[in-house]
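Lab notebook, bench 4. The sequencing result for the construct came back, and we need a structural model before the next group meeting so we can plan mutations. Quick request posted to the team channel:

Model the 3D structure of this chain.
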Amino acid sequence: MELVDQSNSPRDIDIEFRGVTKRFEDVVAVDDISLSVERGAFFSFLGPSGCGKTTSLRLIAGFDQPTQGEVFIGGSSVVGIPSHKRPVNMVFQHYALFPHMDVAENIGYGLRQRNPKPAKQEVSKRVDETLELVRLGGYGKRRVWELSGGQQQRVALARALINHPTCLLLDEPLAALDRKLRREMQIELQTLQREVGITFILVTHDQEEALSMSDRICIMRDGHIVQSGSPRELYDEPINRYVADFVGKSNFFGGEVVETNDSCVTVKFDSGQVLTGKQPKQAPGLANGSKASIAVRPEMISIKSADETDTNSSIAIKGRVMNRIFLGEHSEYLVATEGYGDVMVLSPKSIEHSSRIFTPDDRVSISWRPDAALVLGDT
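Done. Here's the predicted structure in token form:
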């Protein structure tokens, strides 16, 4: 359970959960979670399938009601209020556009359902303004099937935004797009959110998507909040191995804590080798004898010839290159070591221009700076 920051007044918060639980018969999809989303934030629920992120979004939308606890939108409880009466709109993974309507009719659909219904001229004006907002000016008479995947997604966004919701809910909206278009739409969504200034809440299992777009991320597991914070906080200061493994790539060296002090923790492995690292500030303390992992991000590891040394590093491990994958902006090496297992190293192209490119079976030395190693509990 994550505690709500009570220093925020209701007018600064758009979405708030207070002790929310959602059960489906014997299944607890969301288990006693509390969180708050500041007005104008780009907030993401991140986690694997079945972690509770989509159920949390549905509780905000009103498609599901909490078994216990309260959900607030704009400072007012919305428990029991149906979805069509809540000041939120949702963009679905497959957009749910109406094929028998053109683009303008799709976008104006929500306005035409209002009571009283706005005048046709007002609807047309609002549709044109929203088309310009999502950079589809002049596309109003197009049919849905005449649009690309990215254009269809923009139409779905426009249809959701035209009603000026307090909060826009995004249910994996980029999942159906190819990688290049998905990256372009990530930038488009960020720009659009800044322009309209309303709260966006994204549900995704894609860590890159969440890290690149969000102001704040809530990582979930088994219906619980594991950790929430800014992308940088989650990447640089994960509170346990689960978060470090889910956000970015890491090398993990598992063992037992044998010594702790204010500055570092020493972990001993079954092989008899030891490594030291620091604990993240928010991580629970580790006692001697407890299981823990040393985590080192692959981009924080340098790779050199076996006869070279790095004077800035706390440790140098000898190994043999098993594989090299060229990924354009960097190369990914897999290095077999004795006592530490296989280690992944990411070497930027800029470094490879000025040093040697290694090939399988080359003998190498890998190393990292003292502050690059984190000591994390397994739970």
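The chain is about 25% helix and 35% strand.
Will bring this to the meeting.
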